[in-house]
Amino acid sequence: MQFIDPHIHMVSRTTDDYEALAKMGCVAVSEPAFWAGFDRGSASGFRDYFQQLTEFEPKRASWYGIAHFTWLCINAKEAENVKLAREVIAMIPEFLNREGVLGIGEIGLNKNTGNEAIVFLEHVELAQRLGQQILIHTPHLEDKYMGTRMILDMLADFPKLDRGRVLVDHVEEHTIRHVLDAGYWAGMTLYPVSKCTPARAADMVEMYGPKRLLVNSAGDWGPSKPTAVPDFILTMRRRGHAEALIGQVVYDNPLTFFGQSRNFKFRPPS
Q1: Per-residue pLDDT reduced to its tens digit, 59-97
Q2: Which of 24, 44, 111, 179 is in the most buried spot, having the most CB atoms within 10 Å?
Q3: Number of Cβ within a 10 Å radius of residue 39
Q4: What is the pTM for the complete model shown?
Q5: Would you tell me the crossing angle of helices 144-155 and 114-130 to the nearest 10 degrees?
Q6: 46: three-class secondary structure by DSSP
Q7: pLDDT tens-digit profile of 135-155?
Q8: Segment holding 70, helix H or strand E
Q9: How far is residue 91's CA from residue 85's CA, in Å, rounded to a whole number?
């Protein structure tokens, strides 16, 4: 089955991972800007990173027949430095018309601090002003519920924001209903040690249906599995779900959501 991984950090993965994904049916990936494992000290570091995301990484993906798309931001882990964050946000519009750039992300909260909220709101303001889609990171573990509610409350202050163009990622059983009921897309992240498992993701599809649901690996430099989406496909098949329903979650839904971006130019493999 062909699939799209809508959230994976391929700059942290090897070319072997691209090859494995291609062999398993991956035809496209979406890569949000994220933390590099250390705090970058200047806006020029982000400029280099944005160039890597928009220039080299699409070329590397193409070696394996995979389309590569990206999102740009300064992530929540580095948002405590508001001065630096504002310098990076001011630079983002330079890259938004590049091929494959889908919007602003992954923005959000990490420890639910005031500075993180300031930087989140300024990203949302930029996205709304420039008509960009948004991909949102919700916090890990014990901070997730409060952080998700904070994010939804802040988004509610943007009445003109098209909620159908916003993806709230890393949902779990205690946050998914809030996201879907508010009209946003919800992403389920399959991690070995946190967030979600293929079985739990399948449970949520069974509980809420496939509409506005995406599933991803968020594969990065930490404990993660870039081929987690095929694990979800296998879990759904073992439960007897129809191929059409599985395909809706892992292929059709990403196409629908990403298709709202003017820079999403994707030719399905024949």
Answers
A1: 999 999 999 999 999 999 999 999 999 999 999 999 999
A2: 179
A3: 12
A4: 0.97
A5: 40
A6: helix
A7: 999 998 789 999 999 999 999
A8: strand 67-72
A9: 10
